[in-house]
Write a structure and sequence with these properties.
The protein is of the alpha/beta class and 492 residues long. 36% of the residues lie in helices and 20% in strands. The protein starts with 12 loop residues before the first strand and ends in an 11-residue tail after the last helix.
């Protein structure tokens, strides 16, 4: 990518917030490629640490926790502020407003030289999401720390929420009943061009608070964008506009068609009714080395780079907040269901099917029940099974696998998944493989559940009759799949 060809300018220290998100994760790669000194702030440093380069710091903290922010900002020259709470269970606009004020105060106290923020374009009666993004920018630009705010239209790149929604609609629906928002105008910008602007801002001395609108080289409606995608994929699609299909109704059926799960989907679709077009061309003058692609070229690049970018970030990486919608409830005694199976394989061979679990491979047993659970999860605002997995074989801590997230991973030994489906409690599914005396291995599968109140207990015991069948069959079929060169189709 063009934005990777830079040299290190000095020994400044950069604090990157939102490094586990879609844009932040890719920006981290670019900063490390430049040789910049980077410190990442994360509420879950254990999940982020395995994904950073050897010279990058990862510190635990939260913008709403003053002591942790004060520690994270020590010696920092520039901060990338990429925090937003769209996946949070609380009112995200209130959370973002509070976080922006707290961060601005902490950055001023620490003597930060520059803040760079990425927000969103939009005009007219803004959606709550876009209004919040613009409000955060205003708060930061009004602070005493010089701030550069970029406002972008929808981002086109493999794994971005907007691109994945367009892809799913075009790929899955030969005939589309299109709502009113497909006529809204956008100025789509490729993820590489967004990163180029963010990196170029490192070498700009802002005069107080500066605002730049950024977009691609052309303007088009969402319908035109879907047609561009269909053309590049060689798909013939018919679109039938229905003016009465509101953003709210759109979000209800989008949750079943696209991988963007309900909570984010509603907020995203609500924002699509607003035109997101660049009116102020100052960015082209201030950053002349950035030459944004047009929409067709951005789509082509996203499709072309998918295999190369498989290990990079996706929209689902930032979809769930740390509280995962549990509302701060107190969890009671942990419930555990554990079973083991002795197998004749080495640990590496026995672990191979476990490393392929989820996504296209499936869960080895009870496929229809897993799909039913995923559909029910979508109905109540969870991610369902739409997210799949980043790589059909490779696993990294923090990856999403259907409605789970990888919490711990040790090759050929351990995989622990934390549930992100909607639950009356917290749940984990863990697989361990240990060598057995005399040869072979032992596979141990453990389901753990922290129930929230009586409803949580009722949920666990209602599923108990299915555990023996599903988990027992899963272990047997993992044994059968061990050593096979390619995963077969998910079994029923």
């Amino acid at each position: 990518m063009a934005c990777t060809v830079f040299g290190m300018t000095d020994a400044r220290l950069i604090l990157l917030t939102g490094a586990s998100g879609y844009v932040g994760g890719r920006l981290l790669v670019e900063l490390e490629a430049r040789g910049e000194r980077v410190r990442c702030l994360s509420r879950r440093p254990d999940l982020l640490a395995p994904r950073v380069g050897p010279g990058t710091e990862v510190v635990g903290g939260d913008v709403l926790d003053p002591p942790s922010m004060a520690a994270a900002l020590v010696g920092v020259d520039t901060v990338y502020y990429l925090v937003h709470s769209m996946g949070s269970s609380r009112a995200f606009d209130d959370a973002d407003r509070e976080a922006a004020h707290a961060f601005a105060d902490a950055a001023a106290a620490a003597g930060v030289h520059r803040v760079i923020y990425l927000g969103g374009l939009g005009e007219g009666a803004l959606s709550t999401h876009l209004a919040s993004r613009q409000e955060v920018g205003k708060i930061l630009r009004a602070s005493t720390v010089p701030t550069i705010e970029f406002r972008a239209s929808i981002v086109i790149g493999s794994g971005s929420a907007s691109f994945e929604m367009i892809r799913a609609l075009v790929e899955r629906l030969p005939v589309m009943v299109t709502p009113r928002w497909v006529g809204s105008l956008a100025q789509p910008i490729g993820i590489d061009d967004v990163l180029a602007y963010l990196l170029a801002a490192l070498d700009r001395e802002p005069a107080g608070g500066e605002l730049f609108e950024i977009g691609g080289a052309d303007t088009c409606s969402y319908m035109e964008l879907m047609r561009l995608y269909a053309k590049q994929r060689g798909l013939r699609r018919r679109m039938l506009p229905v003016p009465i299909l509101s953003p709210h109704l759109s979000s209800l059926w989008l949750r079943f068609i696209t991988p963007v799960y309900a909570g984010v989907g509603r907020k995203l679709v609500d924002s699509l009714r607003n035109d997101t077009v660049v009116h102020d061309l100052a960015a082209l003058t201030a950053f002349p080395d950035v030459q944004p692609l047009d929409a067709a070229a951005a789509i082509a690049r996203a499709l072309r780079n998918e295999d190369r970018e498989l290990a990079l970030t996706r929209w689902s990486d930032e979809a769930m907040s740390d509280d995962a919608g549990y509302g701060g409830k107190r969890f009671g005694s942990r419930l555990v269901d554990s079973r083991s199976r002795a197998v004749a394989h080495t640990p590496a061979v026995a672990f191979a099917p476990i490393a392929r679990i989820g996504g296209a491979t499936g869960w080895y047993a009870g496929t229809r029940l897993w799909r039913l659970r995923g559909a029910l999860d979508l109905l109540v605002g969870g991610p369902g099974l739409r997210r799949g997995r980043r790589d059909p074989v490779g696993i990294t801590v923090g990856d999403t696998i259907d409605f789970w997230r990888v919490e711990a991973f040790e090759p050929n030994r351990l995989l622990r998944l934390r549930a992100e489906m909607r639950l009356p409690g917290r749940a984990w599914l863990q697989f361990e493989v240990e060598p057995a005396e005399g040869g072979g291995s032992t596979i141990t599968q453990t389901a753990l559940f922290d129930p929230a109140g009586l409803f949580g207990l009722a949920y666990w015991y209602a599923l108990w009759p299915f555990h023996g069948h599903i988990f027992g069959t899963m272990l047997r079929r993992i044994d059968e799949a061990a050593g096979q060169p390619l995963p077969g189709p998910a079994t029923r």
